[in-house]
Amino acid sequence: MRIVGEAMAKLAHKKTECMGYAVVAGEFSSIANAYYHRAEDLAAGSITSRGAILGGIMAHEVGHLLGATSHSRQGLMRARWDDYDLRALAKGNLTFGREEARHIAVAVARRKTAGD
User: Fold this and answer.
1) Local confidence pLDDT in tens for the 116 residues of the chain
2) Residue 68 — φ and ψ, nearest 5°?
3) Among candidate residues 58, 52, 11, 13, the one with its CA nearest the CA of residue 33
């Protein structure tokens, strides 16, 4: 997991509203980037702290690395968070969906077994 600023984010040529991205290369080789400036942008005018938002972005990207391959219509794996999502995040209530959590649990078990 890398936390990168706006200048580095621009080099990735992602959309400006993108909060980060994850790349899986091989079974266990992977990297994720969380955009610090997007946490700052989302925190401006919100009740949610920059730190909570950055943590949510990081969790979202780790979710991609561990098997939540697509975005969802609600919860932590939404592509874009609105005010409702940010309020839920501030309260610790923005979570992975059931199916996403199941994929992540399977991926974590696979990694654990591979390390034994």
Assistant:
1) 999 999 988 888 888 789 999 988 877 778 999 999 999 999 998 899 999 999 999 999 999 988 887 899 999 999 999 999 999 999 999 999 998 999 889 988 988 888 76
2) -85, 85
3) 58
CB contact at 8 A, 63 and 76? yes
DSSP state string for 52-102: HHHHHHHHHHHHHHTT--S-BSSSTTBSS--HHHHHHHHTT-----HHHHH
Distance, in Å, from the CA atom of 106 to the CA atom of 41, rounded to the nearest integer, reads: 34
What one-character-per-residue DSSP string does 20-44 give? EEEEE-SSS-EEEEEEHHHHHHHHT
- Terminal-residue alpha carbon distance, the chain: 23
- Predicted local confidence at residue 24, as pLDDT: 83
Tokens for 113?
A: 């077994």
With contact defined as beta carbons under 8 Å apart, do 46 and 83 qualify?
A: yes
